[in-house]
Each structure stands twice: as C-alpha cells, then as structure tokens.
Amino acid sequence: MDGLLKLLREDASLTAAQLAALMGLSESEVAARLRAHRESGVLLGVRAVLNEEKAGRDIVRALIEVRITPERGGGFDKLAERIARHDEVRSCHLMSGGYDLLVEVEGASLREVAAFVSEKLSTLQGVLSTATHFVLRAYKEQGMLMTRETADERLAVAP
C-alpha cells in the first residue's frame, strides 16, 4: 500500500504539511499525490471514527443478510448498487456463503429500520429474503477500540 494512504488510514486528521514531514516529501508533492488519489477514485473521503455511545447519539444499527437473484447482464452489481444508494445504508458488501449481500443500515429507531427493511429493501425485485440482526454494542469500529481499555493494558498470556 502507498505510504501516504497508509498514514491517512491510521490518522486522517494529518495535514499535508504533517504528511510531508513524515514522508520526507515536499508539501506540494503530497498535495499532488492526494489530488491524484482523489481523481482516480482511490481516496473517496476522510471520516472520523465516532464512539456514538459516548457522543450521546441514540441510533439503531442493523446488519441485514440479503439473498438476491443475479440480474442478466449485471449479475449482483446492479441490484447491490441500487440497495447501496438508499440513505439508510451505511455499507453494502457482496459476500460468499449462505447469503449474497451484507447491508449495514442506520436509523433513529427500531421501527425506522424495520420500515426500511419491509417497505424498501424486501420489496425490491430480485430480493429473495432478508435476515435482520440489530447491533447492540460496538466494541471495535474501523480498527479503533470503543471500550475503555487503555493502550498499556496487555492481554493475559497463558502457558
């Protein structure tokens, strides 16, 4: 992986000047590489990882297993992209195994998520079945621990 992308993945709040210093490049070189990554679609955006519970944001998240029928000429892609365009959808992944798509959904309440599944998702042509799992608590998000564990705590080593 490109060193610049690796640094951004670890800490997206780094400025171009900080990135340049860490990489031993000029700030203009870093800015040019960032621009090239954006234009090529490699760098889609920069987001903060939030601990929603500590932020006091009451949201309901669900992981939905979706079985679909592949479309002629588009396979799974067309329907998956159609599902992914809904505002409620945080992520949508093609999977191997017992279902085809794993869709992560976010809403203000259980009822809102349930309405999305029953009214928007399951009614789409090509959707065969859904299985909804509500997220009760996040312990790790995008590589970041959400628990109160401190960095110097170590896991127990068994003989």
Topology, please?
Elements: H1 3-10, H2 16-23, H3 27-40, E1 60-68, H4 77-84, E2 89-94, E3 101-107, H5 110-121, E4 127-134, E5 140-141, E6 144-145
Antiparallel strand pairs: 1-3, 1-4, 2-3, 5-6
Question: What's a quick, concise take on this entry?
Answer:
Helix content is 31%, strand content 21%. With 159 residues, it is of the alpha+beta class. The model has no long low-confidence stretch (mean pLDDT 88).
How does the overall form come out from the CA principal axes? Answer: globular
Name of the CATH class of the largest domain: Alpha Beta
Q: Report the mean per-residue pLDDT as an integer.
A: 88
Order of helices and strands: HHHEHEEHEEE
- Strand tally is 6
CATH topology description of the largest domain? Alpha-Beta Plaits
- The whole-angstrom Rg is 20 Å
CATH-scheme architecture of the largest domain: 2-Layer Sandwich
Which regions have little confidence, pLDDT < 50, spanning 5+ residues? Answer: none
Query: N-to-C terminal Cα separation, in Å?
Result: 36 Å
Give the name of the CATH superfamily of the largest domain. Answer: Lrp/AsnC effector binding domain/regulation of amino acid metabolism (RAM) domain
Task: Give a short account of the largest sheet.
Answer: 4 strands, antiparallel
Contiguous helical run count: 5
Q: What is the number of domains?
A: 2
Helix/strand class: alpha+beta
